[in-house]
């Protein structure tokens, strides 16, 4: 398996107005709002809300507890599960890095689905 595109330590990242953390992003992020499912290795499947997406990862919100370093699979409507690793956690917000970057066409398809 190819290693995700993030560097430990897995510190929580604060997002807010005027935040300069976007300057260090490896890929363009698009704001989305879509329901999806996440599954961990223990086969626990739960609902999340994806709040932004890039070729290399996504940000989501859920009340389910995950820890940095956890391998998960993101399932979006009509797509196969996408493997990712939890990179950071801030209460109910999570940042995850895809094991393999999304193909640009798949990325655009997901963005289009989120706008329906």
Write a concise synopsis of the structure shown.
This protein is mostly beta strands and about 120 residues long. The chain is about 10% helix and about 40% strand.
Could you explain how this protein is built, in words?
With 116 residues, the protein is mainly beta. The chain contains 1 helix and 6 strands. The chain has one helix spanning 104-114, and strands spanning 30-40, 45-53, 57-61, 71-75, 82-90, 93-98.
**Share of helix, binned:** under 10%
Structural class: mainly beta
Give the number of helices.
Answer: 1
Mean pLDDT: 81
Keywords:
six-stranded antiparallel β-barrel, 116 residues, globular
List the helices and strands and how they pair.
Elements: E1 30-40, E2 45-53, E3 57-61, E4 71-75, E5 82-90, E6 93-98, H1 104-114
Antiparallel strand pairs: 1-2, 1-4, 2-3, 3-6, 4-5, 5-6
């Amino acid at each position: 398996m190819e290693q995700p595109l993030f560097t430990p330590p897995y510190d929580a990242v604060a997002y807010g107005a005027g935040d300069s953390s976007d300057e260090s992003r490896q890929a363009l992020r698009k704001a989305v709002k879509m329901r999806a499912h996440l599954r961990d290795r223990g086969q626990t499947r739960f609902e999340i809300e994806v709040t932004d997406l890039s070729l290399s990862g996504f940000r989501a919100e859920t009340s389910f507890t995950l820890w940095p370093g956890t391998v998960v699979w993101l399932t979006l409507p009509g797509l196969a599960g996408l493997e990712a690793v939890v990179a950071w956690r801030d209460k109910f917000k999570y940042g995850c890095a895809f094991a393999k970057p999304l193909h640009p066409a798949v990325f655009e398809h997901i963005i289009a689905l989120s706008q329906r």
